[in-house]
Automatic annotation (TrEMBL):
This is YchJ-like middle NTF2-like domain-containing protein. Transmembrane segments: none annotated. Residues 41-134 form the YchJ-like middle NTF2-like domain. It comes from the Bacteria.
Length: 139
């Protein structure tokens, strides 16, 4: 079952705390369900966060560089993790085919709250943005 509101909340550096979340079908659903290509790394990042929330491993694999995608990736089996929200802090295209997205994803595992603060690297190959890897920050 797909959500009405998009789990990514329409995260962007310009988003205000009281902004209403976009509809899933109008936001990440068009990439995850309808096969549209995210036009930039930030929208790919949002759709990948949403795929984690939904446990959509095939989408995560399809948007991950073959060179760095973990062999044992399986988002569908992680029932312990509850994703709570996404904040995009920065999106920079370093050149036409490379970009970085800094984000904070909040989640709970085993009743404990956590934050994943990462600066992710993306590459565009044959018109498709792909996640390469990221640096996790303790800040």
């Amino acid at each position: 079952m797909k959500p009405d509101e998009c789990p990514c909340g329409g995260a962007s550096p310009a988003r205000r705390p009281n902004d209403r979340a976009p509809r899933y079908a109008d936001c990440c659903g068009r990439f995850i369900n309808d096969g549209a290509l995210p036009p930039n790394a930030m929208e790919l990042m949002r759709s990948r966060y949403t795929a984690y929330v939904l446990g959509d491993t095939p989408y995560l694999r399809a948007t991950w560089s073959d060179a760095t995608c973990p062999v044992n990736l399986d988002a569908s089996t992680d029932a312990q993790t509850k994703w709570l929200g996404l904040q995009i802090k920065r999106h920079v295209e370093t050149d036409p085919d490379h970009a970085e997205v800094e984000f904070v994803a909040r989640y709970k595992t085993g009743g404990r709250a956590h934050r994943l603060h990462e600066t992710s690297r993306f590459v565009r190959k044959e018109g498709r943005w792909l996640y390469i890897d990221g640096d996790v920050s303790d800040k």
